[in-house]
Design a protein that fits this description.
This protein is an alpha+beta fold and 267 residues long. The protein is built from nine helices and eleven strands. The protein has helices at residues 15-23, 61-67, 110-123, 127-137, 139-142, 170-175, 185-195, 197-202, 251-265, and strands at 28-33, 36-41, 43-46, 52-57, 77-86, 95-107, 147-161, 164-168, 212-219, 222-228, 238-243. Strands 1, 2, 3, 4, 5, 6, 7 and 8 form an eight-stranded antiparallel beta sheet that branches. Strands 9-10-11 form a three-stranded antiparallel beta sheet.
Length: 267
Amino acid sequence: MRRAETTKTVDGPTAAERARTLAYGVADGVLVAPGVPYAPVPAHTTDRDGRPLLLVQSASPIAAGLRNPAPDADPDVPATLRISDVAPVALADRVRGRAWLHGWLSEVPDGELRAAALRLSHAHPRPELLDLAAERDGARDAGRPEWTILALEVAQVEIDDAWGSASLEPEEYAAAAPDPFVAVESGILTHLDTCHRDELTGLLPDSVPPGTVRPLALDRYGMWLRRVAPPPDAHASFDLRLPFAEPVSDLHGLRCVYRRLFARATP
């Protein structure tokens, strides 16, 4: 995501809130651990305290290493969940930010597996999650199930996005909450891009040069827009922040904000 070229509003999500939003599970995740430099995670989310829950295959090197450690191996397995936040709207540069959650891996115990699977299924309704707990119940007779869930105890968090870079302590990260629109942002931005480009263009100040305006990101405090310059000046494209008059916390409040904004943008 390009750095904004306009003054940002003081009111906006904190670095901890942005990290919790990325860790929610919509953005793609990759797990990095000793001997496993790159392992895409099919699905991930967090528990209420922000602890990442990761769906992996039971036969994967990471899961197998946790179950059968080498005799001289450290019982605590360090790992990093690397998250890339990609805009749902098709743009030349779609990466909006990245986060790195560093910590220690463990396999979710049998007694907590059902709750973890249900938590993951809220963000990722995959059939293997719905069946996972039932499969583990019969694992003694039928063998180990194909999938398992790992937990990452967070020790440090880093984030780098349009707001800047930050390093967070685990307590600060755990105390924050993800943005209330994280699960529906993709649909909202896609709708705005498909049906309301003219209104978005009308929201920009007259000082902004002509060009196509695309929605880039949304949070409870405002929106990021991208002004896309026409060829051959595509390099002159830039992002800017459109703050809301006040934070919103639900879809009703967001609709009210849009009505006021679009009414102002209509000649």
